[in-house]
TrEMBL record, chains A, B:
<feature type="domain" description="HTH crp-type">
    <location>
        <begin position="185"/>
        <end position="258"/>
    </location>
</feature>
<dbReference type="InterPro" id="IPR014710">
    <property type="entry name" value="RmlC-like_jellyroll"/>
</dbReference>
<dbReference type="Pfam" id="PF00027">
    <property type="entry name" value="cNMP_binding"/>
</dbReference>
<dbReference type="InterPro" id="IPR036388">
    <property type="entry name" value="WH-like_DNA-bd_sf"/>
</dbReference>
<dbReference type="InterPro" id="IPR012318">
    <property type="entry name" value="HTH_CRP"/>
</dbReference>
<protein>
    <submittedName>
        <fullName>Transcriptional regulatory protein btr</fullName>
    </submittedName>
</protein>
<dbReference type="InterPro" id="IPR018335">
    <property type="entry name" value="Tscrpt_reg_HTH_Crp-type_CS"/>
</dbReference>
<keyword id="KW-0804">Transcription</keyword>
<keyword id="KW-0238">DNA-binding</keyword>
<keyword id="KW-0614">Plasmid</keyword>
<dbReference type="GO" id="GO:0003700">
    <property type="term" value="F:DNA-binding transcription factor activity"/>
</dbReference>
<dbReference type="InterPro" id="IPR050397">
    <property type="entry name" value="Env_Response_Regulators"/>
</dbReference>
<dbReference type="Pfam" id="PF13545">
    <property type="entry name" value="HTH_Crp_2"/>
</dbReference>
<keyword id="KW-0805">Transcription regulation</keyword>
<dbReference type="GO" id="GO:0005829">
    <property type="term" value="C:cytosol"/>
</dbReference>
<dbReference type="InterPro" id="IPR036390">
    <property type="entry name" value="WH_DNA-bd_sf"/>
</dbReference>
<dbReference type="GO" id="GO:0003677">
    <property type="term" value="F:DNA binding"/>
</dbReference>
Length: 263, 263
DNA sequence: CGACTCATTGACCAGACTCAACACCGGTGG
DNA sequence: CCACCGGTGTTGAGTCTGGTCAATGAGTCG
């Protein structure tokens, strides 16, 4: 979602996948973009925050071979839907996603935003069915990692096992923090915390921590934060008046990280 | 606030410890395990919903041998604290716990309640440090499973690996649902949902789904649900007036599950 | 250019919070 | 045995944050 660098700079390999996009199908096609070919983790800019983190070169190679390839997902299309059978995990290679939980009754809820290097789909493991929809916030590319192969590799490659468990655990911690936010923070604090979170994730990826573009709508942000879109808009305006940031539509510049944090 | 449990207090004989003061543990007094010996998963009533689920008998035996034994945690004492080094996972064998996330600034937040058969501590995997406090809601007993041994076993026993991944994923899904609750449900809906959740967990363990004792305070419930203790109290009173339940202090009887669900 | 989605801002209102008083309950100690 | 006490739970009154409804503006795409 948030990269300020040009797409091409991030995509590298993925760029040609984008270039060769087929005419947009009504439903996302699930076939691998590069069937058979490895996913080239070794050349991926996100390898240090992804599944391949802290692996030796030859283990990265094995992971690569397990990859089913890439898949492109166009803006607003779904990578998977709640109820779909769970078969693979996905790693965002380029672009960004939101995950949406839809209760039987009641409004749908955005449960997370995912950018390059993040893994999506871990909620599907427990009952072999995806528990949410994953929707692309822009034209995106994911690496497809069949779960049974990952399981097998985890039994053989200890660092991979460790990294995978770390990622699962990190998701638990992330959600626990989000629960805390939803449970006892004011609307202002939620928005400030959200912006700082985005900022930190940018920094971790080598992008600007203070200047970025929000890929999601105000409504998405509101849903994620448990407030209305009007409140998000008002809060951003207020922060702007106070000189904490500059906002123009989806473009955002944070002017005072400390003051935001003090909320 | 409360005195800490001495580290040396590793359990030798949980049954005896418990029998002397026990209020009403969900788990029947089972035969004591010798110190250092396995935890006797085979005879544990919770084996179906715990780590040993769907394991062959001899694999259960291996898991047993990996167990470091039991540990008792008395009412209001901590199993671990945020910041403690992560070394083991815990499975609640008897009693119950709450987990508390404490932000640098701001009020602490109850992130979960755990009863017999539940696993605690999975948040510690990602950076080898516990991210929350786990506090006993009553005198309790946990099985202690050193994490490095679990990792090793998961590389050898495929069904155990699968079960462990399921448990991690289930925690992610549980939290996602809780986020949804915190994000867009009214106070009444939150309380109703909470009660139905407790009810379902009791049912899954073979206890009464309609009649039980809440081990936590109104304040705990409120923190967990993102409302104040007064709101919890008022809502319970309202539900009682409407004939949906009968409440007397911590004792609760659900009289109309469907009507609660309709909230 | 029109149609649409998305964002901003204002006015009003209600659900939940805060503050406060009081009841209850189990334990403790005189 | 009773008085006392701290922690807990209930209930009421007043307040305010954030939701709802509505109008308008800005941006985008065919």
């Amino acid at each position: 979602m948030y990269e300020m660098l040009s797409k091409a700079e991030v995509l590298t390999d993925a760029a040609d996948t984008f270039a060769s996009c087929e005419p947009r199908p009504p439903v996302p096609a699930s076939r691998p973009a590069a069937a058979g070919a490895g996913a080239r983790c070794a050349s991926c800019m996100m390898r240090h925050i992804c599944m391949a983190a802290s692996l030796e070169a030859d283990d990265v190679e094995r992971l690569d071979r397990a990859m089913q390839g890439w898949r492109t997902v166009r803006h607003n299309e779904r990578l998977f839907r709640a109820g779909d059978p769970f078969r693979s995990l996905y790693a965002v290679r380029a672009g960004s996603f939101k995950t949406v939980v839809t209760p039987e009754r009641g409004k749908e809820h955005i449960s997370g935003f995912f950018m390059a290097g993040d893994a999506i789909g871990m909620d599907g493991i427990c009952d072999e069915t995806h528990a949410c929809d994953a929707i692309a916030l822009e034209d995106s590319v994911v690496c497809v990692l069949p779960y049974h192969l990952l399981e097998a590799l985890c039994r053989e490659i200890k660092p991979l096992q460790r990294q995978f468990h770390r990622m699962l655990s990190a998701e638990i911690v992330r959600e626990a923090n989000q629960m805390m936010l939803l449970g006892n923070m004011s609307a202002e604090q939620r928005v400030a915390s959200f912006l700082l979170g985005i900022s930190a994730r940018h920094r971790a990826r080598g992008y600007s921590a203070t200047s970025f573009v929000l890929r999601m709508t105000r409504e998405d942000i509101g849903s994620y934060l448990g407030v209305t879109l009007e409140t998000v808009s008002r809060t951003l305006s207020k922060f702007q008046h106070e000189g904490l940031l500059a906002v123009q539509g989806k473009s955002l510049e944070l002017l005072n990280l400390d003051a935001l944090d003090a909320r």
